[in-house]
Amino acid sequence: MLFLFLLPGAVQAAALTVTVTNIPDATGNIRVAVCMKAEFLAPDCGYHAIVPSRPGQVSVTFADVRPGVYAVQSFQDRNGNQKLDQNFLGMPKEPLGFSRSPPMHFGPPRFADAAFTLGNQDAALSVALRTK
Prior knowledge:
The protein is mainly beta.
């Protein structure tokens, strides 16, 4: 029997803890997704979690995240419809945030502006929700 964890050069996964801050209230849920470039801004990413909202902050730990380049996207799903609500101009109506707090002037940020590299060591990062 061959065990992968004994093989030299085997890819080791890490735990990634994401703390979502600036949550205005306890309405709905906080949705957090850790996405590779091909998944960024899509409804589903390889790593995702849903936790109840509460004022201030919540933390989510994703175990066994493979090393790579990712971006975190998070929003407060205030009405529980499992999507980010937008107005007729496409502007978000619910609080949202991204890793590295990229600028969002005329639409969502580019992946490169929110991206970070995760190695095989446990890591933590913070995402502040923007309420306007």
